[in-house]
Design brief:
By secondary structure, the chain is an all-alpha fold. It has ten helices and no strands. It is globular, with a radius of gyration of 17 Å. The two termini are 19 Å apart. 30% of the residues are buried.
Amino acid sequence: MFVNYMLGEGSESDYINALRFATELKQTQYIAFAKIDYAKSLYDSNILMAKTLIDEALSILSTCNEKRRILDAQSEKCFINDILNRKISYDDYSNISTEMANNHYIQSEIRIQLKIILLKLLYSDIQPSEIRNELDYVSINNTSIASGKRHQAYINHLYAASYYKENDIVMCRKYTKRSLN
């Protein structure tokens, strides 16, 4: 479902269908997954609804054996709170990231690193060139990124945003196009 939203083709009906199928299958964890995916699609249009959906998903997941998804949802909740409060909760991310590392949830840990980089672009005074150095470090030190199209797209969007912040439209456009491949 989330892929549809990344492509700009997602809708509330996708979410409703996912909930219906999860209910028919009697898989409560799938209801939580649908809520998380739909919440992520709402960050730019209705972040308060996204926060509610993440809270609902966490409540559901607390009754399931879905440790990775709980940690993912906790990182999403932290991200939403940081967007709303225009800050970066380094300690919260560190605690979640440590738990992810202890359980070998590498992809989830990478997503936290990328969220922090995005928040730095938005809310810190760190120079875009330094942020690009962090992106380079994440890319180089995580071999799973080479095979993960979502992470590659996310990283290219972050590169594009860093160049946009410097008013370098040529490089911004270059990385925007890369993120679409």
